[in-house]
Amino acid sequence: MKESPLIRMRGITKVFPENGVTANRSVDFDVQPGEIHALVGENGSGKSTLMHVLSGLLQPDSGSIEIRGVPQRFRTPREALSAGIGMVHQHLQIVREFTVLENIIMGREPRTAWGRVDRDLAERKVGELMDLYGLKMNTRQPAFSLSIDGMQKTSLLSLLFAGAEVIILDEPMTLFDEENQDALQTALIRLREEGHTLILITHKLRESLSYSDRISIMRAGRCVGTFHSSELTRDSLSELMVSGESGRLTGGAAIPSSAAGAAASGSHPSTAPGEILLELRKIGYNGAHLPALRDVSFRLSRGEIVAVTGIRENGLETLEQILTGFTIPTSGSIEYKHLPITGASIQELRRKRIAYIPTERLVRGASMDSSVAENMIILNYRNFHSWGIMKREEIEHFSGTLGQQYNIKASPADKLSRLSGGNIQKVIISRELHTRPELVIFSEPSWGLDLAGRQFVLEKIRSIKQEGSAILVITSDIEEALECADRIVVMYRGEVSSIVRSEDVDKLGIGRLMLGVKHHA
Predict the structure, then answer these.
(1) Fewest CB atoms less than 10 Å from the CB: which of 88, 219, 429, 520?
(2) 401-426: pLDDT as tens digits
(3) CA 268, CA 273: separation in Å to the nearest integer?
């Protein structure tokens, strides 16, 4: 006898009236108790919207939800959580001024007999959850100093502390870096063993096929099918996601066959590097809230792509903070065109034609409450006003043109917070690259992007290299480093383990260097 679904969604339709976009079109979606269910699709396919409806963040215009056969309508996330359904969002929702512990227990603080927060009991209960699921963290660490993965682990632990039975994870691959891919699978299996049901929102094929029991595919706001993972291959899943156009489209536009071939093979056109633009000399850091660095040195030349890769906790985040002036190194120096820029602010870097696309794009790189157009013009807004009056037509034309070039599925007037994660990233990338920078510092370029979006961004990186710019890519994704870079700087425990040319090494070789197997001082 077939088991009744734990969750049954029928005919879910959601329209955003401010822009007329129908994000979900009569979607049917079932989840069985105790399964790991992947919900996959390209950016803008409607998968996050559907889960926002299930988790109470959005209200459907039509359709029904049943939990264990009982009709439900969640007006808020708190109502959904009371019914055992919680969501770890890609757009992170934590209080940056609180500690990790305070974020986890917020709203459910254990109390002493005198009504005070029982911190000892809270620490003990949270510690037990961390041990059980392998989610180790420093509970006293301030949230503002957390990396993206730290914030997501905090959000997940908060749901577990609240007793969520059904956990929706939006792009869970960002929870774990290359070293801890097995840890992700272990955590998911442990959650399922402890009675949880998991829904993974993702566009990553390997993640979907490796970790899930069943996969549902979203395309253009509809659920086009649900399959057991064993029934699918990477090729068949990719075809279902993009309607048979996989490998031929990039960002919705056809790319030349030569570029497509380069993308497929992992090769990239090369040009002879020119003058040295960026040089790091013996950069060191010993601080309280970021991993240490020791004697980090490398150069980046005009017309070259250098990727710095490794486990994020081994210094990638620290390096990003130092390069962009958010953190001052304890030793060493940084030069740009042979002039010192150590500690230079973002504003100073921009005046030198250095662009920066951060990992925390939704925190540092965007104003979520502003429109698409306002986010696009922020770097050169002076060009769009006269005598204090904004030139609305010029702004709309400029942002509309950028939107078309980057295949952004939104109108200039749309609030950025209404866009999918991938489209938000495209807005930020389009703004930064439009300034025609000489140097681009790009952290985790394909984070949160689907297949077409990822390829589109990598092609953009290659194209600005061909125009003579230098690109520094900071990434924990080995495949991304190999695919886009001319040279790869591998980090291990805060040091440069090795600097290699991409054609001289493979994924296994980089992985060994990242883990210190062939570590050189």
Answers:
(1) 520
(2) 999 888 888 889 898 888 877 788 88
(3) 14
Query: Would you state the structure tokens that stand for residue 176, as one six-digit string?
Result: 């774990």
Residue type, 443: S
Strands 222-228 and 214-219 come out as antiparallel
The pLDDT assigned to 479 comes to 86
Instruction: Please answer whether residues 513 and 492 qualify as being in contact, where contact means their C-beta atoms are separated by less than 8 angstroms.
Output: yes
Predicted pLDDT of residue 250: 30
d(CA 516, CA 492) in angstroms, rounded, equals 6
Write the CA distances from 351 to 348, 354, 380, integer angstroms. Answer: 5, 7, 12
- How far apart CA 211 and CA 168 sit, in angstroms, is 14
- Token pair 């710019």: residue: 469
Single-letter residue type at 211 = Y
Q: How far is CA 451 from CA 182, 362, 497, in A?
A: 23, 21, 30
The answer to whether the CB of 323 falls within 8 A of the CB of 385 is: no
Q: Which positions ≥6 away from 452 have C-beta within 8 Å?
A: 42, 242, 249, 250, 251, 252
Half-sphere exposure of 345 (CA within 13 A, CB side): 2
Which pLDDT belongs to residue 91?
63
DSSP state of 2: P
Helix H or strand E encompassing 254: strand 253-254
C-alpha angle 345-348-353 in degrees, rounded to nearest 5? 125
Two structure tokens written together for 214: 């069943």
Helix, strand, coil % in the chain, rounded to nearest 5: 40, 25, 35
Percent of the chain with pLDDT over 90: 46
Per-residue pLDDT tens over the stretch 9-25: 999 999 987 667 789 99
DSSP 231: G
